[in-house]
Amino acid sequence: MRRIIDKIPGAPPAAACYDRTVSRRRTVQGSIFISVSLLLVGVLLAFSLAVYDYASNIARERFSETLSSLSKSVLANLESQVGEMNRLGLTLVYSQVFQDLYMRHLALPRIPATEEELIGKLKNTEALIEICDTILGPNQAAPQLNVFDLRGEMIGSGFYSRIIERDVRREPWYPEVEAAGGESVLLPPHNDPLLEDSSVIVKGKRYISLLRSFQDSMRSTQGVIEVKQYCDTLFGELDSLCGPSASIFVVDSDGRLLYPYDGHRAAGGELLALSRKIAPGTIFTGSLPGRREPQVIAAAASKGLGWVVLMGEPAAGLSTSMMQYAVRIAAITLGAILCSLVASYFIARRLTVPIKALHAEIEGVDIGNLDEVSSGGRTKAPGEIESLRRAFHEMRLKLNDSIQEAVSLRAHEKEAQLVALQSQMNPHFIHNMLQTISIMAEEGETAPIQGLIANLAKVLRYASSTEDRSATLGMETEYASCYLAAMRARFGESLEFVVDVPEGMREIRVPRLIVQPFIENCFKYVTANRPPWRIELRGRAADGRWEIEILDNGPGFPPEALADIGERMVSRERGGAGMPPLSISGMGILNSYERFKLAFGSSSLFEIGNRAEGGARVCMGASNHG
Amino acid sequence: MADRKFTYAVAEDEERMRDYLSRKVGELDPNFHFVASAADGEEAVEIVERYIPDLLVTDIKMPVLDGLGLVGRIRDTNADMRILIVSGYSEFEYARRAIELGVDDYVLKPVDQDALRDTLRRIRIRLESSAGLVEREFGLNAIGAREEELVKAIKVFLQESYRQPYSLEKLASKFGCKTAYLLRLYNKITGSTPTQEVIKLRLEKAKRLLVGHPELEIKQIASAVGYQDPLYFSRIFKREVGQTPTGFRDSMRRA
After folding, report:
1. CA pair distance B152, A123, nearest whole angstrom
2. What is residue A585's predicted lDDT score, i.e. its pLDDT?
3. Which of A179, A520, B164, B186 is deepest in the core (most CB within 10 A)?
4. pLDDT at A7 exceeding the cut of 60
5. B121 by DSSP, 3-state: which?
6. pLDDT over 90 for what percent of chain A?
7. Is A408 on the interface with B (CB under 8 A)?
């Protein structure tokens, strides 16, 4: 890794490189935190907005409902009061007593000529006032009831109970009443100078009058009846019905302002126009006279009366309640967002703490502690990360194994070479060879000497070569043949050897110097017997497998040597460091065994033993494809 | 006794080296006369007992019985025999053991001819100075009827029992005397050795069996005449007769 980086010109050192990458990227915890937070905040905001919208609609609806129903109830109240006034008038007009008295009144001369007539008129007038008072009742349903005749007299009842000269035809409202033809006509609030003077109780009062003409059976107008009611009575409850912030306007169909009646200068026509814009049961935001701030307005119209009630509440009232909603929702949302941030922080932490732990673990790994299994145990990590961690551990152990294997392979290769070199550079071997060459030279065997030297050179070159770590079976066979030929030059006919490895097997790749230790081992044992000594190296391939066999006709492995080798093989296979080799040849055998197992796996064949007919037998084999 | 020749035998498992030493020692010092060579320690014991050479040139690493084992076996019987080791082993341990066993000299392979010549000269001088010492020691200069009777008895015994496993030590203990004495006495009187006598008896019998019983295998014949190892039998046969047992049988049949 470092070597690669070093090769890149100007590359920063590994650590710096790593740090930059980290700082440039967002950490996992950060990403999770940010994305989860954004998601939660978004959802919460959307939810809050929806709730706010819904709630504000409801609030608005409720507000408009309240306002509308309030205005309706105001109107109904007014209608019933006006209806009462109307009833008073009608009751009077249709009572037979009144009709008789009135007819008598009309029959009497306007200005009595005689005393008799005067007394009659007084009595009749008194009776008329009395009947009017009776209609008004003990509770005085209305403060004043006037009956106008068309002759210029008015009979008042109530606070002002007398007959006076008053020409109804000169009253400003008369044409209207005349035009109404018996229907009631309402007069907007006004003062009454007559009443003003009659009693302190009614001082400064304003009145609403209900006027109606009444006809005789010939349908000719006989007079006008006026029912007066205090504006205070009629509209008195309006103020108490609504809060102080509310504004109430009552306008009649002509755009005359009925309420407020105490000197309000509002333009009734505008209010009437405004009321037409407002559908029943809804509210409208606009301005109202006398109010600076925008108002929420509801309207109710009475068909019978032609009156319109406009009720306004400051729009601020609605927005205040909306604002309260909004504030409450905002507070809840904020709280939820905070909670969600905390939650997402912990979620991110919960996810990233194991990742960080894993990271720390990965960082802490070096070649020396690969096999240290971490404290392990169940962590709180989520399943995926836990399995990642486990996978990492397994990878680590596997890596360790393969490093161990590679190191072991390398070490064994070196060991094999060392063993081969030691046995070939062994003074005894060399001295004997030199002795042989010297004798051959003395006997003038030039060609055999050349052959022997060539063989020895090949043997030494092969054993000392560091070029290629793996070899082919052909190379191994060649090496063994050269070695055997060299030995044959020494021992002559005492030594017989057979090298028979089929051509087809020669390309099989095997660890280098794997056969030689067994050939040398043959010499170690076979020469203890009388010649002829026979050494065979045979190869066989069948059924997708190949094997090579090294045989001799010596005394075979001594039982204790076999036991020792077996024990060492088992101990090495268990992964132990292995006992120190007792001898070079023993070391060579174990070394070959191990490298063979490393190269071909545990399924490979490796047998060391003695033949039934005497002599040692070593056999190793594997399948053609690994 | 300036013209007297000393005898020497060679024990060496490598054929080429064996032939070389067998020839070379006589060449380098004409005072030495080659008698026999052996390819392993056991055969070497036999030729030493048979020829009683003045000098044994031996290798260390040999089949069946190695050089040092060989020296241990024959030292007592042949106190005056000179022993020269020619070996590729230069380890101190071998040298030390060789000296303990009374080896005269130690020549390393590859053999330096000048060094070997010098060594042979030193050995010859020692041999010359000790000539006749053993004869005097065992009083072989004056042989009486008693000794002659003993040798006859031995001869008879050997004729009767040559098929049994043979060793000079057992023979000596049977006749109640030291092996060295028995060997020298027998040699003095007969000019031969008990071992040579046994070999002669065994091989004559073998020859008769080879010709007279063609159905017998070499192994059976070897066993019948007292050799447990047929390879060894074949080697002795070839050395003594000049032919392998099979070759002898074939040539006799043809004749």
Report:
1. 214
2. 55
3. B186
4. no
5. helix
6. 13
7. no
H or E element that contains A297: strand A295-301
For residue B202, pLDDT over 90 is answered with yes
Query: How far is the C-alpha of A278 from the C-alpha of A288, rounded, in Å?
Result: 13
- Looking at residue B4, its amino acid is R
**What does the alpha-carbon distance between residue A480 and residue A520 come to, in Å, rounded to a whole number?**
9
* A567 pLDDT above the threshold of 90: no
Contact across the interface for A434 and B232, Cβ inside 8 Å: no
Whether the CB of B13 is below 8 Å from some CB of chain A: the reply is yes
**Contact status, residue A74 vs residue A238, Cβ threshold 8 Å:** yes
Range scoring the smallest mean pLDDT among A306-310, A370-374, B172-176: A370-374
Point out the residue among B15, B64, B235 whose CB comes nearest to the CB of A491.
B15
CA B160/CA A303 separation, integer angstroms: 170
CB atoms within 10 A of CB B99: 11
Contacts 24+ apart (CB under 8 A), A445-454: A448/A489, A451/A485, A451/A489, A452/A485, A452/A486, A452/A489
Mean pLDDT of the residues in chain A: 82
What was the ipTM of the complex prediction?
Answer: 0.86
pLDDT at B130 over 90: no
d(CA A241, CA A244): 9
**Residues A310, A162: Cα–Cα separation, whole Å:** 39
Instruction: Name the strand (E) or helix (H) holding A83.
Output: helix A28-94
Mutation pick from A425, A435, A493 vs chain B, by most beta carbons of B within 10 Å, is A435
| DSSP state string for A376-394 | -S--S--HHHHHHHHHHHH
Question: A430: nearest CA in chain B?
Answer: B88
Note every long-range contact of A129-132, with CB atoms under 8 Å and residues 24 or more positions apart, other chains counting. A129/A155, A129/A156, A129/A157, A129/A161, A129/A162, A129/A163, A131/A92, A131/A95, A131/A97, A131/A98, A131/A101, A132/A92, A132/A98, A132/A157, A132/A158
Distance from CA of A529 to the nearest CA of B (A): 5
How high is the pLDDT of residue A380? 61
Quick one: which of A499, A527, A626 has its CA closest to A585? Answer: A527
Counting beta carbons within 10 angstroms of the beta carbon of residue A208, is it exposed (0 to 12), middle (13 to 18) or buried (19 or more)? buried
Confidence class for position A6, pLDDT limits 50, 70, 90: very low
Under a CB-based contact definition with an 8 Å cutoff, are residues A340 and A44 in contact? Answer: yes
Q: Give φ, ψ of A535 to 5 degrees.
A: -125, 130
Give per-residue pLDDT as tens, B142-165: 788 888 999 999 999 999 999 998
**CA distance linking residue A278 with residue A276, whole number of Å:** 5
Which of A150, A145, A142, A175 has its CA nearest to residue A161? A145
What's at A97, amino acid-wise?
V
Separation CA B157–CA B159 (nearest Å): 5
Pairwise CA distance, residues A553 & A526, whole Å: 7
Provide the token pair at A61: 């609806």
What counts of helices (H) and strands (E) characterise chain A?
17, 18
Q: Using the predicted structure, report yes or no on whether residue A32 has a pLDDT greater than 80.
A: no
Kindly state the average pLDDT of the residues A476-492.
93
Q: How far is B218 from chain A (nearest CA, A)?
A: 16
Highest mean pLDDT among A89-93, A258-262, A265-269: A89-93
Tell me if A535 sits within 8 A of A519, measured CB to CB: yes
Closest CA to A410 of A541, A511, A272: A511
Average pLDDT, chain B: 89
CA distance A379 to A376: 8
In angstroms and rounded to an integer, the radius of gyration of the C-alpha atoms of chain B is: 19
Section B166-176 average pLDDT: 91
